[in-house]
Amino acid sequence: MARSLDGLVFVPVADQAPGQVGRQTRFEYHEQDDRVWAEYRGGDVAMGYLVGTRAGRTVDFRYVQLRLDGTTASGHCTSLLTELPDGRLRLEETWTWESQEGSGTSVVEQLPH
């Protein structure tokens, strides 16, 4: 099993569509037992939160965010946790908006220490 996400900061490897997370967004993860949560902000996101569970290398969570334009959005995401050759962690995400139309995939990687 991959190491804990607790205290790690992740950043997307690419920008998404406007109003979503992008390269300026930072995710600060926490993990205790099988529970995972994070705060995120940056880019078009004024503040966001995710909360969910982890089973081995799979993280399953719901997210909600407030955008800079004052709109809110929420959705569901399942991520596969892998380790990069340099030892950093990567989350390969499959997400679906629940508050609006849309779904997709994205990748976030742990920032270097």
If you had to describe this structure to a student in words, what would you say it looks like?
- The protein is an all-beta fold.
- It has a single domain (9-110), classed as Beta Barrel (Lipocalin).
- The protein is 0% helix and 61% strand.
- It contains no helices and eight strands.
- The protein has strands spanning 9-12, 26-32, 35-42, 45-55, 58-67, 72-83, 89-97, 103-110.
- The protein has an eight-stranded antiparallel beta barrel.
- 22% of the residues are buried.
- InterPro entries: Avidin-like.
- This is N-acetylglutamate synthase.
- Pfam families: Avidin_like.
Envelope shape: globular
Tally of alpha and pi helices: 0
Rg result: 13 Å
Structural class: mainly beta
Q: How helix-rich are the residues, as a percent range? A: under 10%
Q: What is the name of the CATH superfamily?
A: Avidin-like
Average pLDDT reading:
93
InterPro entries: Avidin-like
Pfam families: Avidin_like
Protein name: N-acetylglutamate synthase
